[in-house]
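User: Can you write out an input/output pair for a complex, sequences first and structure second?

Assistant: Here is one pair. Inputs:
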Amino acid sequence: MRYSALSIFLNGLRGNTGWTSAWHFPEPRPHYDVIIVGGGGHGLATAYYLAREHGITNVAVLEKGYVGSGNVGRNTTIIRSNYLLPGNNPFYELSLKLWEGLEKDLNYNAMVSQRGVINLSHNDSQYAAQMRRGNAMRLHGVDAELLDREQVRSMLPYLDFDNARFPVLGGLLQRRGGTVRHDAVAWGYARAADQRGVDVVQNCEVTGIRRENGRVVGVETTRGFIGCGKLALAAAGNSSRVAAMADLKLPIESHVLQAFVSEGLKPFIDCVVIFGAGHFYVSQSDKGGLVFGGDIDGYNSYAQRGNLATVEHVAEAGVALIPALSRVRVLRSWGGIMDMTMDGSPIIDRTPIDNLYLNAGWCYGGFKATPASGYCFAHLIARGEPHPTTREMRLDRFERGYAIDERGLGAQPNLH
Amino acid sequence: MASLISCPHCGIRPKEEYAIKGAALPRPAPDAPRSVWFDHVFLRDNPRGPYEEYWHHAGGCRRWLIVTRDTATHEVLACRDAGAEPAVTA
């Protein structure tokens, strides 16, 4: 069923009894050309672009829970492409361009809102670093504006500009950045992939990878063995566990990142504000709740929940930046499991096993990458060669000394 | 995570006194092959379950400790002084 204003009108006249399920609930078939492990944003997007760009439709996406139960529904919904390094920037810009046309592509309202993303600076060296980053972005053809203190004040008058520790000096603004409704991204991709013949199989956890003569022949699942021609892993925080089923050890640690949403407020913050020095960022959803978060808790975790020390730290940083938040009540908090790599950048690559492909290591930047990740991973699976924007995102880059260390922190995943 | 950690030197203390560094991996010998060093610096088992980590008791005895913690339940299973471990292996 195609969604349109007319379909809403006509279904309204029929008492909304005419709507059908957005996708099917198929039993897994015995064999697929491509199996994708992980029915989150990246896995579903990969299936969609395999079908749309490469005509490969004999595809299954295996999801251990339900569509949207993992990190695609646990993030803070921000999209941006304000990256410094040439190994990263063109990829994230491709992603932002795909976001810009996504709703038409998918015929699904994902509430893409390019409301602007502003990173604040608090001292001269940080301001200079933002100038460098902005120039790097503009050299890649990406929009970036360096704002001085008064320009920031005109946009965000409620910040504490004269904070004793972190006075606001300026900021780097990307106007094309913004937010997207994350559940709708998962649902939109699932529906669009399903319409092109992909089987989205929920409640189907992969428990083993069967290999013969050095090649993957299929996967053991909680719903039986399923054979495949190619196997693609997009398991986010569980990447290490799935890869271990094929005896691969990854340069990844799984860490917990918390996020929060407040009670609904009247329109207050009309862009995304990132207070990196204080480990805090915030935006306001269309429903009125403030959506905010901070840094990862800093220890390995598969628990999808964090500790109160981080909650306190995030709340303190938020109130330090925006004193008006001091009496806002938090409604919910939750945790997602981040696949943190050793340089803070992702991996989209082949593996030492010929027909096994890996999409992992998104750290806490996976949501904004969803469309390009699927697009480029599909390109790799279909053609066997990397998409030009992911040439540097290789699995063996650490061994060869070509890390993409966006923050210059080295092999300390709990610091990225 | 457990709110109270049993330090072998200080006894039961709140977890906020500790700083977590990360995986407690045996350090290879300086002349170990490149592949061994690559594995040590970059690769992780990253298990769902018990995991050994270096913790620093920054707000107490300032000793480095090895804490065994379950990464799925956050339960702290054991805590011992890191100095008792052999410094170099492999």
